[in-house]
Design brief:
The structure is a homodimer of 375-residue chains. With 375 residues, chain A is of the alpha/beta class. The first copy, chain A, is built from 18 helices and 7 strands. Chain A starts with 15 loop residues before the first helix and ends with a strand.
């Protein structure tokens, strides 16, 4: 599970300790954090991070949602794609030169070179699925892919068109407004937890709440400091700087920065890295390792605990739960992400949230009694 | 006049455009900004900045407030002091080694070496006066010093002990509370302007309002970035970092950082530089020049205008009013200070305040009709 910031370059609506509990209640047996360095990245690095963790945990299968729904179609495409690698790469470069964004260039290049494939590579979850399977190959992992078809809601759908299924975007939109309830679209414990969080912490975490900090950061940074931020390329950071001066909310800011060259998501990720002060150097030094070098265990059920005990001897990586003196440096980017994530809360609620990072994990869930406890 | 941040390392209660008007109404004929780089410094650099500007403006006299009140006493001390420079410097080093703060070491060294002097060098405004007169000598200026005795209120007095005179600290304290009015201690136009500012901008500028930004900045900066901040020495920045985690207001933070080695003011100045992201490099490159290289004219009366016209040919420096493409780089630290200063306001009020920097100055005052106008 992603930590405080998500792949689309935005804060999670509620922090990871709340989502860990929801995942356990919804049936997950182990909740492992996908570190910030991988969770806020484009599909290829995101998938590598996730797959390397599952591989290190000696999993047998990885299952992902896709618009396609049949795993064979993915494996067929991967096979074809491998034979056409250089031709596809040439196409990608051509489309980039024509001014397309990277995801559009990638998707168009696949469409052009793999006309006979049954997989619709214009759809975002199919694309992510390709990256998962390619990451499995990259790590020479013995894991097999499986997929579940996504129905009734596309990720980007802003409206709810089905009586019980809605996209994350649509659910966020409901949470921002006052008119509709999310109760039709999420389990009741999710709705209750979100309400409880608002009562306890005073707010949900939307980008708009971070705008004063983003603006402050941009206006007090030197040109060099902004250029050193990860994903600051081709003067995009200067575009952000000029736009932020005249915008009164996050939506306005994004609209004002947006060009055909960069996707909405790509820009949000840059803003996230500016907000968290994540530099090119910081990311490069971590990505050099290729695999995530530790397991950050956020939560487990009794079943998950048994699984870990059984596989313990086979797992080569250290398993971290809380942050302590020994692992503080290795987990510093995620700790920084939590500090940034907390910044829009009142000072006392900030302290409460930071404390979870140091002392709350792993969250232990007894699935029979439906009770949480500490280890 | 200092810009948005003051010598004691704190934000001005209201921004410089408001204080410019107050100064003009109170009888000042020219209001020139002492740039951030000089205004947020210890007495020696603060005095050099101020004196270099007045000297560049071809002033005849500089008049300062002091506890002493007689200028001859100052000139006598300066004369004695020059003959004892090396002995005084040795004493300062000794007292610093004993753990005294710099101002305490300086004052104690003067007391020890200049026993026969009539000037009480334990008093802060007398010390500042010495620095003004030494700066006049340093620049070989033809200006003469004059002094007015401060009565009834010491700078640090927190309470008001006189029916109509109060220290800046005491006035700030009244403004923070709800119980007392400042009307006994300031002209009525000052009281009205402050109330108007609260109505228009929603708040006054106290350190406490910046604490969320200071905390955010500290928690997202690397060790190196913090070490590069001006006045971050001997690990003091690490002390700040650890303290900010556990403090819910600015007073608590300061009390938790404070040691005998560093004055309250010294620590506030470091916090100001952290907040504005002002680096050692940035300050060093500017201080190399010794003199302030431009005149930033914030306001003038008819008399002030006449003065400038008369002396125009003698003044070698460029006179800047608003910020524009030509001078933007030279004024960047002050622009950054205004952005930082604005950060605690709502986003629309931030825009309004930033606009003053670009287009409001110089503020022109007709002292006969008591009217303000634009140039």
């Amino acid at each position: 599970m992603s930590g405080q910031f998500l792949q689309r370059g935005e804060p999670a609506v509620v922090p990871k300790h709340v989502r860990t509990k929801l995942a356990l209640q919804a049936g997950a047996d182990l909740v492992i954090e996908l570190p910030y360095i991988y969770s806020t990245q484009h599909a290829s690095i995101f998938a590598k991070g996730a797959i390397s963790i599952l591989d290190s945990l000696k999993c047998d299968y990885v299952c992902f949602g896709s618009e396609e729904g049949k795993i064979e179609t993915f494996y067929e495409l991967i096979k074809q794609k491998k034979q056409l690698t250089s031709s596809i790469n040439t196409s990608i470069r051509t489309f980039l030169d024509e001014g397309l964004s990277y995801p559009a260039a990638y998707s168009t290049a696949l469409q052009k070179n793999l006309e006979s494939s049954k997989l619709d590579v214009s759809l975002p979850n199919n694309i992510l699925g390709i990256h998962y399977l390619e990451a499995i190959e990259h790590f020479d992992s013995r894991m097999e892919g499986r997929t579940i078809q996504r129905i009734a809601a596309n990720y980007h759908d802003e409206e709810t068109n089905h009586h019980s299924i809605a996209s994350a975007t649509a659910i966020r939109k409901i949470l921002k407004g006052d008119n509709q309830s999310i109760s039709d679209f999420v389990p009741s414990f999710t709705k209750d937890s979100i309400e409880e969080y608002i009562n306890e912490y005073g707010a949900l975490h939307f980008w708009n709440e971070y705008l004063p900090f983003l603006k402050y950061k941009l206006m007090t940074s030197t040109k060099e400091e902004l250029e050193n931020i990860y994903e600051a390329v081709e003067g995009l950071e200067r575009r952000v700087l000029h736009s932020v001066l005249n915008c009164l909310n996050f939506e306005e800011l994004m609209t004002s920065i947006k060009t055909k060259r960069y996707t909405w998501t790509r820009i949000q990720r840059l803003l996230t890295h500016i907000l968290t002060n994540t530099s090119k150097k910081e990311i490069a030094s971590i990505l050099e390792r290729d695999r995530v070098p530790y397991i950050r265990l956020l939560g487990m059920s009794s079943m998950g605990k048994t699984y870990l005990n059984t596989k313990k001897k086979l797992i080569d990586l250290p398993i971290y739960t809380t942050i302590n003196q020994q692992n503080q440096k290795e987990l510093s980017t995620d700790l920084k992400a939590t500090h940034t994530y907390a910044s829009m809360l009142s000072l006392d609620n900030q302290q409460k949230l930071i404390k979870t990072e140091y002392s709350l994990y792993p969250i232990i869930y007894d699935e029979k009694s439906n009770q949480f406890s500490r280890s």
